[in-house]
Fold each of these.
Amino acid sequence: MSTISKILITGGLGFIGHHLAIKLSKKGHKIAVLDNLSRPNIIINKSSETKKKNYNWEYLDEFYPNIEKKIFDIRDKEKVANLIQDFKPEIIIHSAGQTSAVDSIENPSFDFENNMIGLFNVLNSAKECHFITDFLYISTNKVYGNNENDISLVEGKTRYIPENKNFKGFSETSSIDHSIHTPYGISKLAGDLYVQEFGKIYDMKNTVFRLSCIYGDQQFGIHGQGFISYMFLNASSGKQIQIYGNGKQVRDILYIDDLSDLIERYLSKTSSLKPKIFNQKSRVYNIGGGINNTISLLELVGRFESILGKKLKLEFSNWRLGDQKLYISDITKIYSDIGWEPKITPELGIEKLTKWIETNKNLFFN
Ligand SMILES: NC(=O)c1ccc[n+]([C@@H]2O[C@H](COP(=O)([O-])OP(=O)(O)OC[C@H]3O[C@@H](n4cnc5c(N)ncnc54)[C@H](O)[C@@H]3O)[C@@H](O)[C@H]2O)c1
C-alpha cells in the first residue's frame, strides 16, 4: 500500500471503524465508511429525556470531511453491490456488526442477520470485483468459545493464573469447538470461516484478525460491550459496578492506536503481494495486548479506584454464559510476520481512556 488506495470500511462509524478511517485517511488513502448508525455512540440523559446521537459522524464531518459516509444496512445486498461497483475500493475492511454477546443471547436472529448475512453480502460482492485486492475481516476471540477445556487455571487473589508457567496465550490453532460461544461467537466464527474459505477457493487475499479486547478514546461502552469504558463511566458517575462472576477473569487488552498502527502496517506490507504469494501462509491472526498486557476485572477496579481516589461499590452476580475465565492472545504469529507488537501498556492506555472520558463528560452526563 505504498501508493494511495481506495478503502471501504464497513461499520466505519463505530469505535474501531472510525479510528481506522482516520488513521488510513491521514496516510493519504481515499476512504469511504459504510454504516447503518445502529449503534448511537452518545447517549445523553438530559433530566428525563434521552437523546441518541452519533458522535463519530459529527467528529468525522468536522475534522475529516474527505472521508465519505454511506449510510445504509449491509443486509441490503443490492445496495452493498452497488456501492462496491461505484466506489471501486481496492481494500475492504469489514468491521460492521452486532457486537454484544449478551444481546445475541436475547435476540439470536438479529445477530445472525447482521453478522452472517451482512458479512456474506459484503464478501460475496467483493469476490465478483477484479479491482479488490484485499479483504480484512475483523473477527473475535469469541470464536474459541469459553475455552474451558483448553487450559488449567489456578485461582489467585485477584486473577486466574495459568497452571503452565510457559503459557504465552491462545494461538490461532486453538480449538474452535466443544465449548460455549454464544450466538455472537458463532456468527463471527461462521463469518471468519467464510472469509478464509473464499480466500482459498476464489484466490482472494483475505485476512482474519481475531481481536481480544480493544479499548480507547471515543469508545462508548455499553452493557455487554466495551467493558473498560463502560465500567469507568459507571465508576466516575458514582454508580455501582456490576461484576459477573468473581471478577478474577483475565483479558489481554489492546489500545486502539496500537490496533490502527497494526492494520495500516499490515496492509502496507501485504497489499502489493500477488494472491499466490500472499496465500502461501495462513492469514488468520490472534490480535491483542498479548501476555505482557493483561488485567483482571478486580485489578481494573483497583486502577479506577486509584485514578478516582475513592472506593467503588461493586455488586457481584452470576457468571455470564460463555464467559472466558482467561483469554490472552498469543501474538507471536503477527510479530513474526510483520514485526508488530503493542506499545501502549494497560497503565498508559487506561490513563488515556479515563482522561478522555473525564474531559468529555458532557457527552455522557449533562
Ligand atoms: N471492540 C472490541 O473489543 C472488539 C473485540 C473483538 C471483536 N470486535 C469486532 O470488531 C468490530 C467492530 O467493533 P466495535 O467495537 O467498533 O463496535 P461498534 O458497535 O462501535 O461498531 C460497529 C459498527 O457497525 C455498525 N453496524 C452494525 N450493524 C450494521 C449493519 N447491519 N449495517 C451497517 N452497519 C452496521 C454499527 O452502527 C456500528 O457503528 C465488530 O465486528 C466486532 O465484532 C470488537
Amino acid sequence: MAERQRRRQLQKRRKRIRRIRRRLKAYAARGLVLAVCILLCSLIIKSGMWLLKSHEKVEEAFQGARILENKEEEPKGSPLIVLDAGHGGRDQGTSAGKTLEKEINLEVVNKLAEELRDAGAAVLLTREDDTKVGLEDRAEYANENNAEFFVSIHCNFCEEDAGVKGLECYYRDGSSEGEALAERIIQAVESEEQISCRGTRIGDFRVLNKTKMPAVLVEIGYLSNQSECRKLTEESYQKQLAKKLAEGILSTVPPSS
Ligand SMILES: [Zn+2]
C-alpha cells in the first residue's frame, strides 16, 4: 500500500512540475511577443522622427531660395539697406537665462527698419520671423538686391568677465567704406549717454566677407553683463538703440525722398 501511495504522490509531483513548465513556456512566449512589439513600435517612432527631421532640413534649404525670390518686390525709398537679424530658428545665438540673442536681434532690427523707413530709406530684411537662414544666403540676398548698405545685428557674450559691456561695430579688413560706416554708427551711438560703446573693430565674419557693399556687424551689447542684458530686453532701450543706429547709417547718405 505504502509503495502505491508513494508512486501516486510521485506522479502528482511530476504532473505539477510539467504544468509549471508549460506555464513558464507560455509566459516566455508572451514575453517574446511583447518584446518584438516594443522593438517594432520604437523602430516605427524612430523612422517617423527621422522623416520629420529630413523634412525640416528640406524646408530649411528652401528658406534661402524663398528669400532671394523676394527681390521681385521693389522696396520704395533710398538708400536701399539690407538689415540682418543674426541667428534664428534652432540657431539661438548666445543666451542668458530666458533671454535669447535671436529674439533681441529681431526686435532691434524691426525697430531699426521702422526708423530707416520713416526717414525715407528702403529696407529689406534677411529674416522677418524666427527662421534659420544660412550665412551665405544672407550676404547673397544683399548682393542680389544691390543693397547700398548691409547691417547685421548681434548680441555678445563674455564668459571670462561679466563686467564687460558695450556696443561694438565690426567691419571687414581692408574695406574703407565699411570702416567709414562703422565709424559713423559709433559716432551716433556715442552721443547717447544711455548706451555704452566700445568702438569700431575689424571682424572676420562670413556676412561681412561675402557682401559687396559697405557692411557692418553691430554687436549691440553683452548678454553676459546683467544690467546690459536687462536693458537690451527693454522696449525703450531697443528704440533708443534703433534711433542711434539709423542716425549713424544715414549720416553720410541722406535719403532722397
Ligand atoms: Zn550672434
Amino acid sequence: MGRLDGKIAAVTGAASGIGLEISRRFLSEGASVLLADINEANLEKAFQESSQQYAGRVHKIKADVTKSKEVDNFVQETVNHFGRIDIIVNCAGILKQCLLQDLDDATWDESIKIMLYGVFYGVRAGARQMIAQGKGGCIINISSVGGIVPLSDSPHYCVAKSGVNMLTKVAAVTLGKHKIRVNAIAPGETWTPMTEAFLSIPGVEDLFIKETPLERLGKPSDVASVALFLASDESDWITGHVLCVDGGQGLRGVDAEKIFQ
Ligand SMILES: NC(=O)c1ccc[n+]([C@@H]2O[C@H](COP(=O)([O-])OP(=O)(O)OC[C@H]3O[C@@H](n4cnc5c(N)ncnc54)[C@H](O)[C@@H]3O)[C@@H](O)[C@H]2O)c1
C-alpha cells in the first residue's frame, strides 16, 4: 500500500531535478501525477520514463508558470484527465546568481515572475479548484533557504523565495476552513541541473560541505521525502509551515559572495 494511493497531484518544474524526483516519489507511492514544465524535451523524457512503470497514472502538459492562463489550464487539464486535483506542488524555478549592484532589470523580473508570480498563480488555481471540489487538498511550495537567510549572490532569488514563504502562510490561514493545507519546503544547496555549474566551480562544493552542520550537500530525494510527508495524511494537522531541508545550512547561511567578486 502506498502513502498516496488514489491521490491526484500536479507538479510544476517536473521535468528536472527536485520536481522530477518529487513526481517519481509520488508515483511510487500510488498517486497519479500531471507533470508540468516549460522544457518540452525534458518533459517528454520524464513522461516516457514514468509511463514505462506507471502507465495510466502519469500525464504531461507544457506550461509556463509565468502565464496565469497556462497555470489555470494545467490545473484544469489535471481535472479533465484524472477527475480532480488533491495536491499541487509549485516547484518550477531558475537560478541566475548575481550581486545586487550588477543585477539588471530583466534578470530581476524573470526571477520574480517565475518563482513568486508562478507560485501565486499555482496556489490560486489549485485553491479555486480544491474549494470547488469541497474535499480539501494540499499545496506545497518549493521555497529555499535563500528565502530565510540573505544570500548576497542572489538578491532577486531571495526576495522571490521570501515572498513564497509569506504567501504560504497567508494561504494557509485563508484556506484552512476549506481543509486545504499549504506548506513550503526550503531546501539548502542541492545537487541538480540548476546548481551543477555553480557547484562545479573549484572550491564551491567544499565550501558548502564545510559550512553545512550535517557536512554534505542535498539530494533531490531529501526534498522528495519531505514533500511526500507533507502531501500525505501523516501531516494532516500541519499547515503554514516553511520546513528547511538543508542539513542545517539555514541556521546561519553559507555565503558564496566571494565566488562572484
Ligand atoms: N537545487 C537547489 O540547490 C535548490 C535549493 C533551494 C531551492 N531550490 C528550488 O527548487 C526548485 C527546483 O529546482 P531544481 O534545483 O530542481 O532546478 P532544475 O533546473 O533542475 O529544475 C527546474 C525546472 O523548472 C522548470 N522551469 C523553469 N522556468 C519555468 C517556467 N517559467 N514554467 C515552467 N517550468 C519552468 C525548468 O524547465 C526545470 O525543469 C526551484 O524552485 C528552486 O528554486 C533548489
